[in-house]
Amino acid sequence: MQNPAIKTPKPRLLSLDVFRGITVAAMTLVNNPGSWAHIYPPLEHADWNGCTPTDLVFPFFLFIVGVSIVYSMESRKQDQAQHKKLLINVIRRGVILFVLGLILNLFPTFQFQTVRVPGVLQRIAIVYLITGLLYLHQNKKRLLIIFWLILIVYFLVMTFVPVPGVGYANLNPETNLGAWIDRSILTEAHLWKSSKTWDPEGILTDIPAVATCIFGVLIGTFLRRKDQNNAQKVSWLFSVGVLATIAGLIVDLFFPINKALWTSSYVLYCGGLATIGLTLLYWLTDVQGYRRFTKFFVVFGVNPITVFFLSGIIPRIMSRIIVMLHGKPVDSKTYLMETFYTPYFTPINASLAGALTYVLIWFVVLWLMYRKNIIIKV
After folding, report:
1. What is the pLDDT of residue 326?
2. Computed from CA positions of residues 72, 280, 257, 33, in that sequence, does the dihedral angle turn out positive or negative?
3. Helices then strands (H, E): number in the chain?
4. Phi/psi of residue 6, each to 5°?
5. Each residue of 164-207: pLDDT tens digit?
6. I need a labelling partner for 44 at 20 to 30 A (CA). Which of 55, 89, 227, 241 fits?
């Protein structure tokens, strides 16, 4: 991770920062409930098939990564002198993100024998690396072809290739092809501890996740076009978003929307909704100039990896700080919940209040960083 640099920020696409900030704030909220035993259904992932608002957070972020690739590389992509630097930078960022993800999984025990190898940051790293390299070496037409090839081939592989040891193709949690690949390559010791037999960020599902990022690249490329005015861009992008969402719902009929499997229907459905969301924000903020509501989300949007990494570390530190409550030893997070929230709210609202407080604390920290133009980049 680079040292924080204090400098005048470059001009940015405000709607992209806002959209990223909304996504990161939502990610912080759903990842840090006051109690995992008491969560409102929209703030939980779907049990298997289906899509809750929480299931939109990760694909939205990968979509945003794709749009950001265009805005950070487009002006330098055609410059041969810059091409090698961009290539090295993409590889470097991918490696750093992956290492940060492993550190997050290792902390605080650092048990390498049983560390979970996949993870959210690891998926971001792999997807960014592959998509960034594709963007540097392929044009928009080829990227579109690659996008559809991934969705079609992934559907065929998951629904027609027999799973070794099972004998038939299926989309069940423990017996689908992706789960078999995860167990075969990573072994159960290095998979998601809640299942130990499959991983929601598994190896095979990284491939359709790349398609989500490519979706963002294609939308970002259209946003930067000079031959379209703002009204035309908004009309086209909104139409693409609606059509992709509908396409996802149609594909859902035979290849269900499923985050853990990152199905082709999930890519289309979430990509469509992300396009609609970004388009609406683009029209409101960058075109119409409505910016009063944006500041809260912008401060989350300019330091996303910092928030995700540290917001995952801090609760683990708190779980190891033991204090006394009513004569009994409890971890510091439980102490705060039982002291400031549980006596005054129902269990589910106490949990939500704790999560919202955590988001607000992060807002204060990020606001101070924003005021000083401190952006920590990977």
Report:
1. 85
2. positive
3. 13, 4
4. -100, 110
5. 999 999 999 999 999 999 999 998 889 988 888 889 999 999 99
6. 241
Tokens of 302: 């300019």
Q: Which of 216, 191, 195 lies closest to 134 in space, CA to CA?
A: 216
User: Rounded distance, CA 184 to CA 201, Å?
Assistant: 15
Tally the residues of the chain.
378
Q: Which of 127, 129, 57, 69 has the alpha carbon at shortest distance from 93? A: 129
CA gap 364, 368 in Å, rounded: 6
Cis peptide before 33 (omega within 30 of 0): no
- The CA radius of gyration of the chain, in Å to the nearest whole number, is 21
Structure tokens at 119: 């993870």
By the 8 A CB rule, do 97 and 125 touch? yes
pLDDT tens per residue across span 30-73: 999 999 999 999 999 999 999 999 999 999 999 999 999 999 99
Neighbours of 110 (CB within 10 A): 9
Residues paired with residue 322 on neighbouring β-strands, in sequence order? 331
Q: What phi and psi, each to the nearest 5 degrees, are found at residue 354?
A: -65, -40
Angle subtended by helix axes 264-281 and 230-251, to nearest 10? 160
Q: How many angstroms separate the Cα of 88 from the Cα of each of 91, 94, 138, 272? A: 5, 10, 17, 32
Residue of 237, 301, 239 whose CA lies nearest to 12: 301
Is 60 exceeded by the pLDDT of residue 2? no
